[in-house]
């Protein structure tokens, strides 16, 4: 008797045995079930998405808040506002404990219906609001960086972790030190780990770089952490 | 050499072979990936859920609409309103094309901020609104029935299919005829199929029932459909 794999239909030898028939069938069923669950969850996500009122000039958005990005110019000692991004109190309150506190108390923003956010561009602010409505945003490295900062400020955990995952997937030799410093500043553990691994792998070349010297100047504790991680890894490798 | 199943760890014979090693490993990886996707989607669902402003007496809900259930009493020729269920225009507009049309035009409801829904109890209305905010509701058979009707009226497809699935899972000999008539009335295909199957299986006893005779009186075409399905099944069985 010869054995045929029920999955790829090819003949195989005893030493290449994977599972028995029963477990194969069970696994196929499990996979089907998981796929059905995914379909259900996707339908739920698309049901729960809200249409963001991105354009303040559209009628009937019923938006009861306006958000503005503010950039301060020190030279001219004045600040400039981005165009307004409309939003709904109910949505912002649901998504962020910071907005919740701001909009459920007698704070200035609650009374005026205007929220000013410093050092953020119109584009980033729009993407931020869009994410609060849809849990969707198109990221590049700069946008991920900017949105992570906003997400941390307003405690929008889901967005922060979304940006952090994206940045983690982009860590390389070139940006490892910058990513490491950024991740520390914004308490992004997963990104710290990824950047640290990348730094340790290339430690001999990276320590020669200008950025590394700047990091040492600015925050020597971070450099200590790098060396400690490097030494721990050496010990672990030696033990194996 | 003996073969051990990599999944259940038990020894098996050639004829009980399931998969080769490679396919087993691939399947495990796929399963892990699917599970991760499920986790991500669950987090997205919980991020996108909104807190429904169920109690109109709570401050700071920012609700800009009030929904009322209306029941008409023919005897006393007057109608009574349920307590108000508060809601946000932005949410209702996102979830239902009917509410969207109502609230984006110069209709009475838009101006007054009051929506009256006929023949619905306070409990059902609350559950309906809760679902629009959270995609969650606790169903029993009556609630599924009532919410399906509302979901059809306001074209909330996701809720309709949620209720239909629930009702389909509850079809049995006792409720098959009633389910069948209900499903036809509300264009619930999946439920029609399930009820029809159940009726056909027990056709000899069910045709004797009072309900069946009532159905024949009320809508003879539905009874024709039952007999046609029964005959088709008989022919198919005979051919096999």
TrEMBL record, chains A, B:
<dbReference type="InterPro" id="IPR011333">
    <property type="entry name" value="SKP1/BTB/POZ_sf"/>
</dbReference>
<dbReference type="InterPro" id="IPR000210">
    <property type="entry name" value="BTB/POZ_dom"/>
</dbReference>
<comment type="pathway">
    <text>Protein modification; protein ubiquitination.</text>
</comment>
<protein>
    <recommendedName>
        <fullName>BTB domain-containing protein</fullName>
    </recommendedName>
</protein>
<keyword id="KW-0175">Coiled coil</keyword>
<dbReference type="Pfam" id="PF00651">
    <property type="entry name" value="BTB"/>
</dbReference>
<feature type="coiled-coil region">
    <location>
        <begin position="20"/>
        <end position="51"/>
    </location>
</feature>
<feature type="domain" description="BTB">
    <location>
        <begin position="63"/>
        <end position="141"/>
    </location>
</feature>
């Amino acid at each position: 008797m010869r054995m045929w794999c029920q999955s790829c239909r090819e003949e195989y030898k005893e030493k290449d045995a994977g599972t028995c028939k029963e477990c194969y069938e069970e696994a196929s069923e499990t996979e089907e079930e998981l796929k059905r669950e995914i379909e259900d969850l996707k339908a739920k996500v698309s049901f729960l998405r809200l249409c963001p009122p991105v354009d303040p000039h559209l009628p009937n958005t019923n938006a009861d808040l306006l958000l503005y990005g503010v950039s301060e110019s020190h030279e001219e000692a004045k600040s400039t506002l981005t165009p307004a991004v409309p939003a709904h109190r109910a949505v912002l309150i649901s998504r962020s404990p910071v907005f919740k506190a701001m909009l459920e108390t007698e704070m200035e923003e609650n009374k005026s219906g205007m929220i000013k956010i410093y050092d953020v561009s119109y584009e980033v602010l729009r993407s931020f609001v869009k994410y609060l409505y849809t849990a969707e945003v198109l990221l590049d490295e700069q946008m991920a960086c900017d949105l992570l900062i906003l997400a941390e400020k307003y405690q929008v955990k889901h967005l922060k972790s979304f940006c952090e995952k994206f940045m983690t997937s982009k860590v390389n030799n070139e940006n490892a030190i910058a990513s490491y410093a950024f991740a520390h500043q914004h308490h992004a553990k997963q990104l710290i780990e990824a950047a640290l691994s990348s730094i340790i792998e290339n430690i001999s070349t990276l320590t020669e770089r200008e950025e590394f010297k700047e990091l040492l100047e600015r925050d020597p504790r971070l450099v200590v952490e790098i060396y400690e991680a490097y030494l721990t890894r050496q010990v672990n490798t030696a033990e194996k």
